[in-house]
Each structure stands twice: as structure tokens, then as C-alpha cells.
Write a structure and sequence with these properties.
Elements (H helix, E strand, L loop, with lengths): L1 E6 L2 H15 L5 E6 L10 H6 L7 E2 L7 H19 L3 E5 L3 H13 L2 E5 L11 H12 L2 E4 L2 H9 L7 E3 L3 H15 L9 E5 L3 H4 L2 H14 L4 E5 L2 H10 L8 E4 L4 H9 L3 E4 L2 H10 L3 E3 L8 H4 L3 E3 L4 H17 L18 H11 L6
Parallel strand pairs: 1-2, 1-4, 2-3, 4-5, 5-6, 6-7, 8-9, 8-11, 9-10, 11-12, 12-13
Helix pairs in contact: 1-7, 1-15, 3-4, 4-5, 7-11, 9-10, 9-14
This protein binds uridine-diphosphate-N-acetylglucosamine.
Length: 367
């Protein structure tokens, strides 16, 4: 059986790595890895392949950046001949980025079976490009691997045949479980505690420059209470340069995007995380680190029900108040570390092996 994986953007390297590993232990499985090139900077791509011990891609489509239509179309045009030449039995796509929907669309037109890893997540906000990508990819997929029960419910509600849906758990947590001990060894010695860890890259936060400036000013205010470490995504870096002057506070550190292990190390010991990323909401839930999400909605509602994550929307007062409350609670406990895991069912490091079992057990039944 020949399985071809398509990855393109940073969060999906962490999802594909454990699936590649799990499938490599099954006999009779041949694998091909295609990188679309959606993310191309060494800090956004190469370093992840290295730290996650992923094989080098068999093929890099080199599509780079562009508008949504340009990027999606470029992946489709470059991927089609690769699929025609390599003739995989199944293509695995990951997450919700433009590379994901582009690959699913090409496969479905060529009659190649598609498996979607991280299926069924919904924010119900079609203003987010990722929501469009999720809806379409799931409609086009033959195998839908969901991380949690809400994913199954969303898919059934959209009329997807229950026989295609497999609740396997969270592959990103597989990577976290495997690499957390190594990440802890990488904890930088010069980081003062307590600290907040911040990431912001969604268009809704960073493309609205007046809003981004206000957010940054709020982070600067927060840095009077604790250190704030903010690894800056290239998209955000561009926007910050457009804003020009930035608040200079000694305890607010804007740094380059971090490799996986270094970021995970910081996340595991953060007093709080402020983010608009989907994956970080999940990782902080697993790590039991309080997370404030600067969005009006989330496609990962389980992170809210587990009690670690709060949506603060576009309300800076809410952000300030929630951050203060988290810090007061930590001070009352006289600690900033949050031990233990919150225990989401199937977020146990074995999701990729479940996917592999399903694929090798039912190679002819999936369409
Ligand atoms: C993409 C995904 C988003 C995911 C994020 C993780 C879509 C629609 N969005 O957003 O879901 O959360 O990746 O990072 O697929 N750039 C570089 N170097 C790179 C990559 C990007 O400088 O290696 C800059 C370019 O200016 C580019 C911009 O970042 O235009 C945005 O990159 P793009 O891949 O389009 O979207 P992301 O914001 O990264």
C-alpha cells in the first residue's frame, strides 16, 4: 500500500511526524512525503523537520506565499502531476491550511482516496479561511480522523457517513508526549520566571493595524507584572514593521519564531499563554497551563470545557482582567507551574498508531 502525505505549514509538521512514524512500523506500507512549500523559511519549516526527526520530503512543490487563490491554485497545479506519476493508494492531509484543502480537491478529482487527520473541527466562523478549508476538506475525504467527540458530532450534523469517521485522538499531542522530556532539557537558562508566552498571527489580529497596536500596548502593560515572551511569526513581524514604533519595555521580549522544542519548553513552564493559534490552545490544555485566546470563537471547544482555555475575543479589558486573575490565583498557590495533565480522552500519545491500524486494517474498504 502506497501512502502519500501532504504537508505545507508549520503546525502540520507536528501532526504528520507521528503518523509517518507509526505507519513505518507496519509491513507492506510505502510512504511518500510531499511538502507544498507554503512555509519555506528555515525557522518555519526546516528546523521542525530536524527536531521532529522527520524524513526529508521526497518532493517540495515550492509554492511559497500569495493570496489565498494564488496559494491554493499553485498547490493544486504542482501537486497534480506528482500524484499522476506516483499513483498513491491513499493521500493523507492534515489540519486546515490552504495546502490541505488544495490537496484534497486534487485527489478527489483524480479519484484518489483522501484521509483527513484532524477532521471535524468547527469554529462556525466562515470569516476564517481555515473554516472554509475544514468544511471542504471534510466533504472531500474518505477517511475522517477526529481528535475529540465534538468533531464526530459536527461531521454527522453535516451529513457525513458515520462509517467514514474514526475518533482517534490528537496526533499533535502524540508529538508533545514523545518530545516533552527532550524539550525540558532545552529550557533556556536566561528566562526569568514568572513569564507569559504570547503568539499572534491570525489575520483578524495582525492585519488590523490599529487593533494590533492596542494589543501590543496591552502586552506592554502586562509586562509590568511579569515578563512577556513573544516569538513573532513572519506575517506579524511585517505588520509590526508597518506600525513603526513599538512600546519598549524591558520585560516585553519580541523574539524570532522558535523551534518546536524550545517553544514547547517555554510553554510547559509559562504562568500563562496568550495566543490566537489553534494548536497552542490544545497543547496548553494538555500541559494544564492557563491560556487566553484572543479570538471570538474556537474550533477546539474541548479546551474551554476542560477549563484551561478562555476566549477573550476583542476585549482588551477582558484580557487584562483574566490575566490578572490567573496571576493572583498562581500567587495564592505560591507557584507559577501547573503540574499534571487535564486528561482529554484519547489525547494519550497513541493517536497516530490508531490511524495506522485503521489504514492497514481496512485498505480496500475506505471508499
Ligand atoms: C498559515 C495558515 C494558518 C496557520 C499558520 C501557521 C492558511 C490559510 N493559514 O497562516 O492556518 O495557523 O499558517 O503558521 O493556510 N511567511 C514567511 N515565511 C514563511 C511563511 C510565511 O515570511 O516561511 C510570511 C509571508 O509574508 C506570507 C505570510 O507569512 O505572506 C503568511 O503566510 P501564509 O502561509 O500565507 O499564512 P500564515 O499566516 O502562516
Amino acid at each position: 500500500m502506497h501512502i502519500l502525505h501532504v504537508v505545507g505549514a508549520r503546525p502540520n509538521f507536528m501532526k504528520a511526524a507521528p503518523v509517518l512514524r507509526a505507519l513505518s512500523t507496519h509491513s507492506g506500507v510505502r510512504q511518500t512525503l510531499v511538502h507544498t512549500g507554503q512555509h519555506y523559511d528555515a525557522a518555519m519549516s526546516e528546523v521542525f523537520f530536524h527536531q521532529l526527526e522527520m524524513p526529508q520530503p521526497d518532493c517540495n512543490l515550492g509554492v511559497g506565499s500569495g493570496t489565498h487563490a494564488q496559494q491554493t491554485a499553485a498547490v493544486m497545479i504542482a501537486l497534480e502531476p506528482v500524484l499522476l506519476e506516483r499513483k498513491p493508494d491513499l493521500v493523507l492531509v492534515y489540519g486546515d491550511v490552504n495546502s490541505t484543502v488544495a490537496a484534497a480537491l486534487v485527489c478527489s478529482k483524480l479519484g484518489i482516496r483522501v484521509g483527513h487527520v484532524e477532521a471535524g473541527l468547527r469554529s462556525r466562523d466562515r470569516g476564517m479561511p481555515e473554516e472554509i478549508n475544514r468544511l471542504l476538506t471534510d466533504q472531500l475525504s474518505d477517511l475522517l480522523f477526529t481528535p475529540s467527540a465534538d468533531g464526530d458530532e459536527n461531521l454527522l450534523h453535516e451529513g457525513i457517513d458515520g462509517a467514514k469517521i474514526h475518533r482517534v485522538g490528537n496526533v499533535m499531542i502524540d508529538t508533545l508526549v514523545r518530545l516533552l522530556p527532550r524539550a525540558k532539557e532545552k529550557f533556556p537558562s536566561d528566562v526569568p520566571t514568572p513569564y507569559a508566552l504570547v503568539t499572534l498571527h491570525r489575520p483578524s489580529n495582525v492585519d488590523d493595524l490599529p487593533w494590533l497596536a492596542k494589543l501590543l500596548a496591552t502586552l506592554a502593560d502586562l509586562s509590568t507584572h511579569l515578563h512577556v515572551i513573544f516569538p513573532v511569526h513572519p506575517r506579524t513581524r511585517e505588520r509590526l514593521e508597518a506600525i513603526g514604533s513599538q512600546p519598549s519595555r524591558a520585560r516585553l521580549r519580541l523574539v524570532e519564531p522558535l523551534p518546536y522544542l524550545e517553544f514547547l519548553a517555554l510553554q510547559s513552564r509559562a504562568a500563562l499563554v496568550i495566543t490566537d493559534s489553534g494548536g497552542i490552545q490544545e497543547e496548553s490544555t494538555f500541559l494544564n497551563v492557563p491560556c487566553l485566546t484572543v479570538r471570538e470563537n474556537t474550533e477546539r471547544p474541548i479546551t474551554i470545557t476542560m477549563g484551561t482555555n478562555q476566549l477573550v475575543g476583542r476585549d482588551l479589558e477582558k484580557l487584562r482582567a483574566a490575566a490578572n486573575k490567573i496571576l493572583q490565583r498562581a500567587a495564592a498557590r505560591n507557584e507559577t507551574k501547573n503540574p499534571g495533565t487535564a486528561g482529554v480522552p484519547l489525547w494519550d500519545g497513541q493517536a497516530a498508531e490508531r490511524i495506522a491500524q485503521i489504514i492497514v486494517r481496512a485498505p480496500v474498504e475506505v471508499r
